[in-house]
Amino acid sequence: LTNGLASYSELLWVGQEDGQAAMETALHDVMLEALTVDEVPIIESGREEDYSPELWALTGSKGAAVVNMLRAVMGDDKFFEGLKTYAKNNLWKAVTTEDFRKAMESAVGHDLGYFFTQWIESSGAPEFKLDYTIFRVGTTGYRVMGKIAQDEDTFNMPVTLKIETDTKPEEKTVNVEGTSSEFSVDTFGKPKAVIIDPDDHVLHYSPDIRVGVAIRRGEQFAEMNEYAEAVKEYNKALDTNRLSSLAHYRKAEVYFMQANWQSAANEFHEVLNGDMEPKWTEVWAHINLGKIYDISGQ
Description:
Blueprint: H1 3-18, H2 20-34, H3 53-74, H4 76-89, H5 97-108, H6 113-119, E1 129-137, E2 141-149, E3 156-165, E4 170-177, E5 180-187, E6 191-196, H7 207-223, H8 227-240, H9 245-257, H10 261-272, H11 280-295
Helix pairs in contact: 1-2, 1-3, 2-3, 3-4, 4-5, 7-8, 7-9, 8-9, 9-10, 9-11, 10-11
């Protein structure tokens, strides 16, 4: 209620000042940090140490991600009405999550218990799997029929599907309930691709997100000088994407700080053999290779 809403307010300010794209970029980073602790529900965050990365990941980052998902579920008008009601009714009072839930339910006009059970009282996040078939309908259209699967038995969330076509894209909201939910979308243009949650409204895993989360965990260990644990996390990222230049770069940094010049050089070379995302990894891999050659008299 404190850290999560404060973090989300910061995201709203970024959106106000720098535009929606900047807010979405910042939200992506927040979601990565939220998933660095995925085995403890928010409601049990009090067990984490004060000011620890784990406490902030649960209350600040996951809290902000949950508030953003609640906004998507309620719609902007009802969401901001609920926030105003919550603040007005509880001014200078001690509050609980139940007070917040009641204010948001009052604004939207229906029960939100399923949402709070999913994201406040439960841990983990889904990883969506998509299976679909495209049919021709008459002479002027197409139909995409399929199902969205994930492994959380109690999951219940509206999820947006975006169907890219050779004309304009089509979007449909599918209520994913349980481990599998079917959908059917009619389009005028020929479908080219189907994208789940294109705007990242739902906190979930994907291969790219798993890489990002592992790198973020590794960075946290490196900041605490726990280099062996940091390397383990970077290796997890590389198990998912062997071409991740950022994972190789972070691993090289650890070896560099330990004066393990040959291992650092090997990893900086792997940066240059990878996807070179983000672009700065290419530049700094060359710079750090130059430093290593300088140190070794080459």
